[in-house]
Please model this.
Amino acid sequence: MAVILGAMTTVTIDGESNGFQSISWNINRQPNRLWQLGSWNPWRTQVGTTLSINVTSYAEALDPIDLEPSTSCVDSTAVKRIVINADTCSPGGAINVDEDKMFLNSYSYSKGDPIGFGTESWSFQKWIESGVAGATFINIPDPTYVLQGRSEGTRNGDVGNGTTDMGVRFIGEGGPGGLAYADHVVVGQTGNVSAGFPGQGSADDIEQGLVNRVGGGLLESGGNTGQSSATIPHVPLYLGT
Model:
């Protein structure tokens, strides 16, 4: 078992190398067995492969990402280049990841302590060629394009001005979109309180709407709390050769 130490690992995302708390990555190969009559052995095995990277950073460590759904056959622009250089305690166990188009799948911002600091979590994915060989395997290539759909998000709390300072910007608060804020945002409410001393609680409006930018949540906002999240759908498109 290889053990990776944080002091031995460097991370660079779009040229930025400061402010990262943790990172994890996973290369997942999904076998699809083609079963046949008269045998417990599959005829072929099709293999699809994805690379996933999850990053937790202090707020303001990464630049925001504008979200623009695909209107033609072009790759999504919600991407970051991620470089990971991790040394392990195993002999010859260096790990290197260098991907220039990691597509953003989800984002969240959290500042739960009024005197604490905001953090951001970013989840990325990329569809990559399977890289398998042999007569029994069917290799799935890189997709021709990766299309971006419309993003949805939520936000509650009072960090900064209670809008884009919480890391999620709704359509109508600036940027592209073609809709006014009131055209698509719905508002609910959440609250809690407990007995005892000091018996504190909280109550916040919850805004849910269409999102055109994520990131840029405040690191410091004394006395305030808040959180936000958004999902960014991506679909690989295969057109063949």
